[in-house]
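User: Please predict the structure of the protein below. I'd like the answer in structure-token form so I can feed it into my own downstream comparison script.

Assistant: Understood. Taking the following sequence of 294 residues as input:
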Amino acid sequence: MSITIEPSHPEFVAEIAGIDLAQPLGAADRDAIEAAIDRYAVVVFRGQTLDDRQQIAFAGHFGPIHASAQKARHRGIKHRLESDQIADISNLDGDGKVLDLNSRRRLDWLANRLWHTDASFRAVPGALSMLYAHIVPAEGGDTEFADLRAAYEALPETKKAELEGLVAEHSIWHSRGQLGVTKYTPEEIASLPPVPQRVVRTHPGSRRKTLYLAAHASHILGMPVADGRLLLLDLIEHATRPRFVHAHTWKQGDLVIWDNRCTMHRARPFDTTQVRDLRRVTTRDIASTLEQAA
């Protein structure tokens, strides 16, 4: 095994060095990286040089890859990246130009600034996300991560009991609607229907219980919508206290992996006249959270 692992935060996040991810991944390094993800939930690799094909190949060592939902919800426009296995997390249009202020895709993309976990709006949600930085702005554009295992463990026992068995409905259209972004076609909306997910689940790698929250979570099933939304807002507020949060400042060549099953994240503002070109591959979880251990 060639890698070294250095924690970046008392509870979660670590930096992994001593490996070139563009090269074939050996079994020992793969297993060590997976163990680090299970322990720290967010891991950072600096100074990588990856093309899309190499990023996809690396991600494939950790599970089947989710096809990006971008083309499903942005039909009839030119997309910059060819592969459906990689999501365009940039402020660029199909021709590589900075998106216009009123661009439909830019407005949709702004929801990345809400606390969320990738693909929770799908019946089989996201497991690991792997985001690689091609070009970053001079300042701003950090990504913040929240540790949902530590947040759950810090709840009072009475609150844990209250949350037991609760199921939330998740929808990508709910997160966009919070920002007043609602101009989607009936076909686009039908392509991504709402799905149920547990509010509390057991993280499979560490066996620790964790909250499962996101801006995509609309309401709690079986509860008045207003009450459910207030509960979700309270939980997100709790989970994003400074003690549970780490901010990553991007450098060109960074690859960051995070575990969507036990974290939330959000993008922070930057000067959107500058290019920010990041690309993400997300692996699939094994099943709906309802089919996994609570």
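That's the full token string. The longest helix spans residues 225-239.
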